[in-house]
## 1
Amino acid sequence: MVVEPPRKVYRVGAPMIGTRYFGIVDQGTNIVEVRPTSLCPLNCIFCSVAAGPLERRRWADFIADREELAEALRAVAKLKGPGLEVHIDGMGEPAVYPELVELVSDIRGIKEVEAISMQTRLFMLSEEKIRELAEAGLDRINLSLDALEPALAKRLAGASYYDPARAAALAEFAVRNTRMDVLVSPVWLPGLNDGELPKIAKWAVEAGLGKRWPPVLIQKYLPHKRGRRPDGVRPVEWPEFWRWLRRLEKELGIRLDWRGENPFRVERRPAVPKPHRAGERVKARVIARGVFKGEYLAVPLKLSGDPLLDRSITVTSDKRLREGDEVVARIIEDEDNVYIARAELVFPQSA
Ligand code: SF4
């Protein structure tokens, strides 16, 4: 019998740039993504990052150290200049981050940050927590809500405890009782939730979402390499998606296609420096498992102490590695300063 290793949860203060598991992902614009945790209580059947307690391919999750995260973000913000939006998201559900209010407050204290937004399913928060988040400086909730019909919503979320009515009620509470805005961002899963999207769009407008930003942004389902792929969904190409959206827009009389405008005021900004390149070899120490089995989190043996220059690296290996092992790994991907490397030599930790 093969005994599965239980999933580990790491609280990490490792370099906050370089991995998709946690920290900061920069795509060279004024929108900076902050990822506080990879934990999520749901198991959405279409999850692009295969999050949630039932996923057998994951063997670790991460909770980022708040002070390290804020320090790195201050350095990134200084480099990029004023007019930034910090978007809290990640390979999990950011609302379960234990120091979320404090993190929002840290971000609010960064003078270059103009807006703070967060992607969430919301149902796990309370009215009190929403008030606290608004007072700490959260400007917008991007509500992930793919169905209002309870049985379908639970099926899509892969969890009987998921409650779409609670999420909708909390969104209404937020727009009516706080300075925050809410934008609903359902994913269209053709063949699964077609009938739900008109209901969600109408609800969003009637409930007063979109005080400052668009009330509804429907997302196209994009199958991802590591993501879960639901049965019965027919992925569509972009032209079909836009045609369908325009039809829905006409039918409902609600603006859904925001191409040609820039409601989030996205603009190019300097990207954080890239200290490593694909093809290069790095000597690194394994400090944790990675999120997916066969992946590890490593940090280079030589660190500068500067959050703009130090990187976390995801190392893949066929051999089981242990925390403390040193490796020589060849970087095979470096896109957006996210580094994936393959272990070539392993120096096991001394016992
Ligand atoms: S889609 Fe979001 S809420 Fe659903 S399992 Fe993935 S991370 Fe969690």
## 2
Amino acid sequence: MYAVILYYYFARITDPDEFCREHKRKCQELNLFGRIYIASEGINGTLSGGVEQIEEYKNYLRSLDGFAQTEFKEERIDHVPFVKLVVKTRKEIVTLKSKVSIDSTEEKGKHLSPLEWREHLENEEDILLIDVRNNYESEIGHFKGAVKPDIKNFYDFEGWVDRSELDKNKKVLMYCTGGIRCEKFSVLMEKKGFKDVYQLQGGIINYAQQEDGAHFKGKCFVFDDRLAVEVEKNQKEPLGKCAISGVPCDTYINCHNMDCNQLFICSKEAAIEFQGCCSKECMTSVRCRPFLPDNIYMPSRKWYQYYDENQWLDIREKREQQTTYTKEG
Ligand SMILES: [Zn+2]
């Protein structure tokens, strides 16, 4: 049995590089995998490893100056959903790319606990419910009645708010996966003149655990090898649609053309027909990794563990010969 944790904390870090080195050393010592971003404004991470080692890591982070109050969303899992450990510094732990400056170590939005959130959904009619995640995330699962911005990156959110002409006097309820994006987006919306903005404490993951996923339809996209986790109980049909065939589907693959590598929702049948590619055009690329019908939903980065380089080159050469032949013929 393993544990996977999702966490963030905004606190001033005076020397992010040194903090990063020390953190990496600690994670290696505990044999943890995942990714951690560190900036002068704080830390954002998702990690997996042995249950005891994860516990030790949590104690370690909470022992650091300013991080005693860090909260962790934790789940038990039968395998580690990461193949690497990445610990690095960034300018911001949530990339906003905004002209509006937000100091999240000082400026906080208003939080609703999962129970309060549920009560708001059940009792208030005139609210503006916003799913602040990317379009490919909200497609497979979201709260009933939520506005879902058609955006591809975190930093497209601000532009969407500016364009959308939302009523600034309405009460806003916003949510994301684990809560970190809302920490910035809620302050951002207040600065843009929205009068009453609330965010879901701990995001969908926390809500799923505390309130059993009530009023949520479908699954929650996560940024690890699992790609999606269950939120709605006894879900009957997937919410998303296969990007190729249009059938109901909530499983993602990366396009097998390595120059494209786009993450998209794909049914098993369409994956077989398109050999794991997102389009006919990508199918003609010589830089396609081989399609494995028995492991369609294996994440691309995991795939490299299973195939050594020589085997891969053999396959690629054959493919290139075939392509050359077809072109000449
Ligand atoms: Zn493609």
